[in-house]
Amino acid sequence: MTIENKIVAITGAGRGIGRATAIHLAARGARLVLGARSEAEIAAVAGEIEAAGGEAVYLTTDVTRRADLDALVNLACERFGRLDVIVNNAGVGPLSRFDALKVDDWDAMIDVNLKGALYGIAASLPVFSRQDSGHVINVVSTAGIKIVPTMGVYAATKNALRTATEALRQESGPNLRVTEISPGFIDTTFADAAITDPDIRAAILKRKEELAISPDAIARAIAFAIEQPSDVEIGSIVVRPTAQD
Predict the structure, then answer these.
(1) Is residue 157 a contact partner of residue 88, using CB atoms and an 8 Å limit?
(2) Catalytic-labelled residue, pool 58, 106, 154, 190
(3) β-sheet with 55-60: strand ranges across
(4) Other Cβ atoms within 10 Å of 98 Cβ, number
(5) What is the rounded distance in angstroms from the CA atom of residue 96 to the CA atom of residue 78?
(6) Catalytic annotation on 154?
(7) Are 63 and 157 in contact (CB under 8 A)?
(8) Cα–Cα distance between 52 and 47 in angstroms, integer?
(9) CA-to-CA distance for 32 and 199, rounded, in angstroms?
(10) Which neighbouring-strand residues pair with 59?
(11) What is the pLDDT of residues 35-77, one digit of tens each?
(12) What is the tens place of the pLDDT at every residue in 13-31?
């Protein structure tokens, strides 16, 4: 099998794992449909892909709005005639202890990390059903595998998505593939940019400096799942630094 000419939609595609995945898949011949809240960031990623000879379209996408995911999937179908893969990658991680009572941050993580991915699934499943083919890839986290302080709500949203992903896999039948990717410590601005507690932010930055690996590692894992034959499903991939606990 090949990634060439696959139509792949990616949320959170403006930076970090989403950006790395878009650029890697485009280099392998996929045609990309990019979504993120920052139009400037996804326009830059699309421009980089096109400058390298690839093909990408983009749409400003806030995954907390179901209509935005519907529009992203519709863009894929209108521009390319189909959608082969959706990568539900958008996520936020404003980490804090429970007793800090940052309830607005809890709500944001639920809305983006869990509901945002569910909206992506809801938007893509009718298309995949019509085509009799498709692939849902949900980016989860090793934070849900090893639970640590300050990551309680973040890990809870990721484990809820992990559970939903497994249920979808069992429901999916022979023509829909479902994969969850669990990144470990990755060198992005994902967590530290949103952390307001200076001690937690300093600890995350120190840990990232010591351990973090390139988001390209996750891009390669996603490509591996996509490029399998249609009757082969990679259900789960965990990718972490070798030095991570």
Answers:
(1) no
(2) 154
(3) 55-60, 31-36, 7-11, 85-88, 134-139, 176-183, 236-239
(4) 11
(5) 42
(6) yes
(7) no
(8) 9
(9) 39
(10) 35
(11) 999 999 999 999 999 999 999 999 999 999 999 999 999 999 9
(12) 999 999 999 999 999 999 9
